[in-house]
Design goal:
Blueprint (H helix, E strand, L loop, with lengths): L1 H6 L2 H24 L8 H11 L5 H32 L1 H16 L2 H9 L4 H26 L3 H9 L4 H39 L5 H10 L3 H34 L2
Helix pairs in contact: 3-11, 4-5, 4-7, 4-9, 6-7, 6-9, 7-9, 9-10, 9-11, 10-11
Length: 256
Amino acid sequence: MIVFIRYMNKNTLYKMLSVLLALVLWQLIAWKIDMDMLLASPLDVIKRLGTIWKEPQFISTLAFSFFRITMGFLCAFAAGIVLGAAAGSLHFIEILLWPYLIAIKNVPIASFIILFLLWMNFSQLTILIAFLIAFPVIYSNVLQGIKSTDRKKKELAELYHVPWNRRLLYIYLPSVKPYILSAGSIAVGMTWKAGVAAEIIGLIDGSIGEMLYNAKVYFQNADLLCWTLIIIILSVCSEKLFRFLLKATFKGVEKL
């Protein structure tokens, strides 16, 4: 154990200690309240986590929400890159999309959820809400990345008639890459929060949101916190996986 700590990255060690401190604080507050229906202790949540995965609907519930939230994010990612690049290259497209971006950014997510519940099948709601949350983040960062590209490099490429694919690979990609990585990391977490919120408000059958709603209705605080912990784990893992795949894709493209 001592050897493991010695070779551990200091930043990682500090983060682990911070998490441990938060758990201790949580446990103390739970002892102080001394009422499981209001705040279950970390030990109760861990115990429930050890049994909840054995329930028949557990895997199907995870798959239901994971598929729809991921689908919404991936659609937003693709649309954000395409439209962000187009807006960065053609100013009139940026102006054309401006009112839609303002509306998506400023209209409360609950308003979108209630509005869409009147128009579509409940099972599609999660995908659309995840899309609406992630798209402005991806689009804005790609647009900013295109705009921050070195103007002299673009002028030289234009002067020497460099093919568009080589401009994309050697001029625009290095400029946009950090923006895409940052936007993706932020958007993944946002899609999980918004997607689950849509499931709760829409009472979508077979979703994680439904499980959270039922836990609230029946005062099952351990279940509520357990599902919340599962959402956090899925969100973090999704972010790590996305960054890994995106970095691998960039490396593959750069070798071409």
